[in-house]
Design goal:
alpha/beta; binds adenosine-5'-diphosphate; six-stranded mixed beta sheet; four-stranded antiparallel beta sheet; binds magnesium ion; 273 residues; 7 helices
Length: 273
């Protein structure tokens, strides 16, 4: 795995693409099911906010609303002051199950968004290798997803999102489908990549440890319908690395969030519906 942190990239000089997001009293219903309600959140530029909550509490739904893929039922979402109604440029999403096209190579998958956005062949040829290198997939340009491990597939998914040079990166449990060791490697690599090119990142996870490790702030969703139960300032020293996991504040926050969610998780486990 080699990430050349000094590599000249086409994105150099755009390192402060980042956006402010305001979420005002939003709610979302699917028919009779009120998934969440009265959610108010502000995301600052160059901030990593993690969102943690039990399965089914509406984390994916919330990201899809922020992405403009789903309309909210109540309230409004604004990015840089602009009302979100449809997907907009500068907002990229990384999916839990990678979301790669199985019939496209790594190169084609990474270049897909660029192509869709109307980038020229020359631009794609310049940018794609840079982002493939950034996520450590050098030499796999012509591999197909089935030839890659889960971790490598998610590197590809991440490169595809980063290639759009987004100001907002939405991550939906991106490391949930990879093994524990790979997950840890990817977490720290993502933090390093983010450090090079800080953007507003909203990182959804059901892992309490991951939420505390990755976030500047942790948003805890709870209840049915869910809403914001707590917002925690993490305040762990930078850079976050393996030593962070042994920091007393890390354990303190992990236990705190665990205590907050335990009843809810237990209830969900025994909920046959
Ligand atoms: N397209 C949909 N139509 C109807 N119900 C949905 C749809 N998508 C999700 N849901 C329901 O909304 C709730 C929240 O789902 P989701 O956002 O996927 O939760 P999470 O990501 O936190 O696990 C769940 O009860 C789920 O079954
Ligand atoms: Mg989900």
């Amino acid at each position: 795995m080699s990430v050349d942190l000094n590599a000249d990239g086409p994105a150099d000089g755009q390192s402060d693409r980042s956006a402010r997001i305001e979420i005002n009293s939003i709610g979302k219903r699917y028919g009779d099911l009120q998934v969440f309600q009265d959610i108010n959140l502000d995301f600052n530029e160059r901030e990593i906010v993690t969102i943690v909550g039990p399965s089914g509490c509406g984390k994916t739904t919330l990201l899809r609303c922020i992405d403009g893929l789903l309309p909210v039922s109540e309230g409004e979402i604004r990015i840089e002051g602009e009302l979100m109604t449809t997907p907009r440029e500068g907002v990229a999403m990384v999916f839990q199950h990678f979301g790669l096209f199985p019939w496209k190579t790594v190169f084609q998958n990474v270049g897909y968004g660029l192509k869709l956005a109307g980038a020229s062949k020359a631009e794609i040829a310049e940018k794609v290798p840079y982002f493939i290198n950034l996520v450590g997939l050098d030499g796999f340009d012509s591999s197909f997803p089935y030839q890659l491990s889960g971790g490598m597939q998610q590197r590809c998914g991440l490169a595809r999102a980063l290639a759009m040079e987004p100001s907002v990166l939405l991550m939906d449990e991106p490391f949930a489908a990879v093994d524990a060791q790979t997950r840890e490697i990817l977490q720290f690599e993502l933090l390093r990549i983010w450090d090079m090119r800080p953007m507003t990142m909203i990182f959804v996870t059901h892992s309490i440890e991951e939420a505390v490790l990755m976030g500047d702030r942790v948003v805890v969703l709870k209840g049915r319908p869910s809403s914001v139960f707590e917002i925690i300032d993490v305040n762990l020293p930078a850079p976050r690395d393996r030593s962070t996991l042994a920091h007393p504040r890390f354990s303190e926050l992990r236990e705190h969030v665990w205590g907050t969610l335990m009843d809810e998780v237990r209830a969900a486990e025994f909920d046959v519906n």
